[in-house]
Amino acid sequence: MSAIRIGNLHKSYGATPVLRGVDLEVAAGEVVCVIGPSGSGKSTLLACLNGLEPFESGEVVVDGQHIGWGPERGGARQRVPERAMTLARRRIGIVFQAFNLFPHMTALGNVMEAPVQVLRRPRAAVEAEARALLARVGLAHKADAYPADLSGGQQQRVAIARALAMQPAVMLFDEVTSALDPELVGEVLAVMRKLAEEGMTMLVVTHEMGFARDVADRVVFMDAGLVVEQGPPAAVLGNPREPRTRSFLGRVLRPETQPA
Amino acid sequence: MDFEWDLFVDSLPTLARGALTTAELAASSIGIGLVIGLAGGLARVSGIAALNAAAILYVTLLRGVPLLVTLLFFYYGLPSLGLLLEAKVVAILALALTNGAYVTEIVRAGINAIDRGQMRAARSLGMGWGLAMRRIVLPQALRRVLPPIGNEAITLLKNTALVSVIAIPDLLRAGTDIMTWQANTFSPFAGVALMYLAMTLPLVWLVARLESRWRVA
């Protein structure tokens, strides 16, 4: 069973269509990178996957839970109640471009918040796990630091630990290195690479072509609200079939990732 | 009319009793006003149209009418509705509702000033709207609005002086009473002024202390 199943997803902001019938599946344990020009709908797609953005039509199933619209019955779909969506989000980790750490809590507090408040688990057990998670992202020594005292790369690693604390079935990454200074990008990508190696199901919207090439099982190229092309990284990045993919890659690829 | 030192000193015990009433009125109205304001602010951002409309109507009415008028309206109007309340209760009602209207708008502005990403992050971790509001958004918003809320509290404390028009023996009323009985002198008002000042200073201090204690992010 796929961890994420998206079928004919349509979404618009007012009169402007953003997603125009997206189909995409992600298998459990698979790492899929979504690339494409700005405005192609990549980030909106992620926001639809955890129900933060409502969408007009289509089927989204994450970890067996319907998001947005329920299963089709007699040709019609019912909206998934907000309460069910809130429950479903527990199993869907998301990391944002802007980190969005809680500034009034320490790094440890950020990681502990959801397991304690949402899952109502005992503090002591959660704290032990949270410290282990911070160690996993290389920030055991920053447990008591507030977000304002952390670098962008450190904040983003805390944000990853915070999402992992809910033991999600899938992890969504929304351009998580785009707001970082270049020298801080590597530390965040290293954490994500490790996560991928450990078998986490990941859907990664990114501009990091090197990461997509090395880590992804599959690369998806989106443009103008549609999946244009997808396949193994070597194929999509190294030998794209579609002219739109070729023109995009020609614009963004740095020399070291230039197709041979 | 000269300043009469003896009269000033003699008036202090009477004034102190009035000050106690003023403090009582101010403390209860500030407390109730904060609760109303918090509820009103949450109603404004709840996304529930009926709650939002009710809050807007409330704020518009209470903020648009002079407190003195609200006070007199309640004092003379409520009995005709069959509500016979003690003058002090009427005063607290008028003061707290007016204060609550201003606090509603302050709380709303404070919540809206918090980056939307905070609510998104909280919701994405499986928090419901209420939990996300209570744990993530409100703590940040309330820190930011502490100074304007402190201002409102001080304004309210001073506005309690208006209640003397509905025959409540507050600090100002104590002063005017002394003036009427004692040879028409202004001397007791020095005591009145000092006592209002003495009551606002702890409020100023309290707000400053809360502000420095709560780390503003």
From TrEMBL, chain A:
Subcellular localization is given as: Cell membrane
Q: Does the keyword Protease apply?
A: no
Q: InterPro entries per the record? A: AAA+_ATPase, ABC_ATPase_HisP-typ, ABC_transporter-like_ATP-bd, ABC_transporter-like_CS, MetN_ABC_transporter-like, P-loop_NTPase
Any one GO molecular function term: ATP binding
Q: Does the keyword Ribonucleoprotein apply?
A: no
Q: Which UniProt keywords apply?
A: ATP-binding, Cell membrane, Membrane, Nucleotide-binding, Transport
Q: What is its main location?
A: membrane
Membrane-topology annotation of the record = Peripheral membrane protein
Domain ABC transporter intervals: 4-249
A Pfam family reported for this protein in Swiss-Prot or TrEMBL: ABC_tran
Q: Tell me the protein family, please.
A: Belongs to the ABC transporter superfamily.
Q: Which PANTHER family match?
A: AMINO ACID IMPORT ATP-BINDING PROTEIN, L-CYSTINE IMPORT ATP-BINDING PROTEIN TCYN
Recorded protein name is Amino acid ABC transporter ATP-binding protein
Q: Which organism is it from?
A: Falsiroseomonas selenitidurans
Automatic annotation (TrEMBL), chain B:
Membrane topology per the entry is: Multi-pass membrane protein
Cellular compartment(s): Cell inner membrane; Cell membrane
Give the primary localization class: membrane
Supply the Pfam families for this chain.
BPD_transp_1
Domain (ABC transmembrane type-1): give its ranges.
19-207
Does the UniProt entry include the keyword Metal-binding?
no
| Organism superkingdom | Bacteria
Q: Do the record's keywords include Transmembrane helix?
A: yes
Q: Which UniProt keywords apply?
A: Amino-acid transport, Cell membrane, Membrane, Transmembrane, Transmembrane helix, Transport
Give the transmembrane region(s): 20-43, 55-77, 89-109, 189-208
InterPro entries documented for this protein: AA_ABC_transptr_permease_3TM (IPR010065), ArtM/GltK/GlnP/TcyL/YhdX-like (IPR043429), MetI-like (IPR000515), MetI-like_sf (IPR035906)
The family annotation for this protein states: Belongs to the binding-protein-dependent transport system permease family. HisMQ subfamily.
Q: What does this protein do?
A: Part of the binding-protein-dependent transport system for glutamine; probably responsible for the translocation of the substrate across the membrane.
Family matches, as PANTHER family:
GLUTAMINE TRANSPORT SYSTEM PERMEASE PROTEIN GLNP (PTHR30614:SF20), MEMBRANE COMPONENT OF AMINO ACID ABC TRANSPORTER (PTHR30614)
**What's this protein's name?**
Amino acid ABC transporter permease
